[in-house]
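MarR family transcriptional regulator, pasting as requested.
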Amino acid sequence: MDDEKRAAAEAIDAFGRAAKSVVRAFDERLGDRGVSTPRSKLLAEIERLQPVRSAEVARAVGITQATASTLVDALVRDGLVIRSPDENDRRAVRLTTTEEGRRQARDWRSDYTAAAHELLSCLSREEKEQLTALLTKLGDHLA
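Structure tokens follow.
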């Protein structure tokens, strides 16, 4: 195995370990809200993009439409999101947040930002910007 391939494998291993650790740490810090991180992130994105189609918010969050549909069903049942007919396409619906949904989305975003700050406190601002640029480049390459 040449050095380039070995370096790539080591980078992927480190990325995988870090990703699992980040998800676990976020779940621990945000778990007391009683709502999963994917569900909260979806709610926050609906609040930000509303009125929005389910497929659009699924892309924004990086989940499948099927997963988004399941999460949206739960958000609707809990009175946090409303489905409304799309004025331009009778087959489609638009999602908007209720007042309680907006409140929960704002609270979650605040908690999310604080947890992110805490988790990345070992990095300088420049390192955070570099990490963001590298992860964005990787995500764009794989999309």
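Note for the archive: Residues 3-142 form a domain with the Arc Repressor Mutant, subunit A fold (CATH 1.10.10.10).
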